[in-house]
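HUMAN:
Just now I want nothing more than another pair of eyes on a protein record. I would be glad if you read both lines and explained how they fit together. I have put the entry right below:
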Amino acid sequence: MYILPLPNSKMAPISIKRILISESVDPCCKKILQENGIQVTEKQNMSKDDLIAEIKDYDGLVVRSATKVTADVINAAGNLKIIGRAGTGVDNVDVDAATIKGIIVMNTPSGNTISAAELTCTLLMSLSRHVPQAAMSMKAGNWDRKKFMGAEMYGKILGIVGLGRIGKEVASRMQSFGMKTIGYDPITPPEVTATWGVEQMSLEQLWPKCDYITVHTPLMPSTAGLLNDTSFAKCKKGVKVVNCARGGIIDEDALLRALESRQCGGAGLDVFVEEPPKNRALVNHPNVISCPHLGASTKEAQARCGQDIALQIVDMVMGKSLVGAVNAQVLASTFTPESHQWIKLGEAIGAALKSCTTSKQPFSQVQIITQGKHCKALDCVLISFIMVGLLSDGSQSCPNLVNSLTLAKESGITVTRNHSEGLTQGACEVEISVNGCSYRATGSVQGGVPVLLELNHSVFRQPVSLTGNLLFFKAVASPPLLPSVTGFLATAGVEMESFSAPAARSGDQWYCVGLSSLLGDLGALKPLVKAAAQVSV
């Protein structure tokens, strides 16, 4: 199991020693990685089989858009810890497969923003004034001014579907032409886009208002075919559309029908469902301006994306920050100094609790209750680390912050969580269920040290420091107990470094002993105790 980097902590960072760059990425990417002690190999134009054979030797993979990082590739990568996409979007990466394997998928969300926005504006203006068609006519020896009568953009309405970084930049630029900008985005709040001069509304309201429509969303089930026969029918006759985002957001067959019926007056397309497109009907249509996916094809964007992905990887490995992780947003919380001990607490509680379950059967339910402001701020990362501790068993599944909740779900484990502001200090209680039996542990951070306060209803007189080698055992409270355990440890050649007793003095109780090293055989303890477990944290 590897643990993601935490500055000034004892947790082992991700070890990124070798990275494969499988496409043409700006040379600054390789230079930055090498300057930070990472070996880099560049191999372009590999087939899928070549990539599968090659990837097993690398800790990281950097791609652009041509390399298809499929589940087969990911499953062949025994050491892979990060996939970096030098560009926006991760359509060419099987993120689900990577997540299950605990591999971080990262992109450069702002690297090509300006270039993509500028190309969008270029296509909008070209549609308005028929610039490419007029240029081709001139090259053919013609002088036909009437044929290419255009329209001003001033006063026209531009609908922007997707108001992220690129949508915002498009709005800013087209407003300078005097266009009114309206838009739709399910995430960005309307009050935020209003400050950019973009009025938000529903798609049903947007379609009939627009003279021009441009889309800037990721391709996903909810956005595939967003502009289709039904939505085109609701638009103004002659509406012009632009897609510099992802092929498939505009239904290509519906677009062709809209162009033929003149419901759509023109289209600017930089992306296609199939690239390069084998069906040339759209490309060859006289009212379509098409480009071979040039959104990020500027020197500046390529340099920026190459630099960004290299710096993001280096910063993550060095424990400085996390930017661009699409399947591990929870990791961002691990880079704040105040989070380190709480993170250690989560994993240690999970590991300690797992060690104390007598059943070999997998647990079915995990209930996590957090209290206090510290735990609230770290809710997701704390829960993920608890699951890392609970799921770690030395197998090849290698749970980590990226995949622990996914692995739990796939294993049929139900995870529930609740939070209350009851304790200012902060505490975390974890209860797991195995075959109808429950096991519970409560911990906190005191004096900057993660501690165990309670184990299976046994409240310790002094909090147990969750560090080093720990032996937990359940026994009937009695005066001879401590000498007997001490004698057993001495016989085994193991030193007792600490001893934590429960506050209760009668009945079955849990105790904790700090050891110089783990015991080789817990079975020999059976005559002295009712249950025993050990863990190294």
Residues 1-12 have pLDDT under 50 and may be disordered. The chain has 18 helices and 22 strands. The chain has four domains: 18-111+299-331, 112-290, 336-442, 468-536.
